[in-house]
Amino acid sequence: MEHPGLSPDQLDRYASEGVAHLPAAVAPEDVAALSEVVWRRLRVGHGIFRDRPSTWRVPHPAQLAARTDELAALASPAVRAVLDQFLGAGGWTPPDRWGLPLVTLPGFADRWDVPHRNWHLDLAVSAKAPAVARVFVLLADHPAGGGATGYVAGSHRVLRALAAAEGREFRSGEARARLAARSPWFAALFGRPDGPDRRARFMDGWGEAEGVPVRVCEMAGRAGDAWFMDPHLLHATMPNAGASPRMMLTEWIYGR
Ligand SMILES: O=C(O)CCC(=O)C(=O)O
After folding, report:
1. 220 C-alpha vs ligand 1 centroid, how far in Å?
2. Atom of ligand 1 nearest to the CA of 149
3. Is residue 116 exposed (0-12), middle (13-18) or buried (19+ Cβ within 10 Å)?
4. What is the domain extent for residue 61?
5. What's the total number of domains in the chain?
6. Does 3 map to a domain?
7. Which of 29, 48, 77, 109 could disulfide-pair with 239, CB 3.0 to 4.6 Å?
């Protein structure tokens, strides 16, 4: 079946908020197989078993990156259609091995709150969008509060405007410092929590920075959903206050 890629509405959201959510992008049987691969790596690398929560002893098991291409099914026809849309058919280089697993085991967050640490960029921000696509795929259902990756909608536009105004690039730490210096909203987001209601402040409505609407959101959704993220969007690991593991895959795809 020919996949249409993102709709005009999804593309508008990608431009304004920096993300596009594509439900059911990976087939259920592929999601099941991908999730089995991640559980095997957890078992072999960490002694963490799917059916034994007593073995879920660390919040973020690391070193789950692929040595083989056994997670390639994340690049489903629907995901590839979006990459073609962003970077042109034949205009991107497939990674040597698809898929970095992102796992957050439950039981380590007393309660869910908007984090103040860990907000970051993986690429230096410049005035123009780079020819890089970023995809995240959910391997399980992740409702709000379930640990799916957090992001600041609109932050890519604020950061690109700052980079344009100063005629230079900012790396992650510098970008955070600039945002905190120029915007009370970002200063409060990165500041030590001084009240219980960060969710209301940062998620229930839009704030504003440099004239751009900004808001903290989660890549929540159903198993098999894909999220595409602008590579200049500020993002962070979120707490998992749910009862089941947060299990996602991510990948960077570079234009030729
Ligand atoms: O753990 C997460 O959800 C955040 C992942 C992240 O920061 C990244 O993949 O760049």
Report:
1. 14
2. 3
3. middle
4. 8-255
5. 1
6. no
7. 109
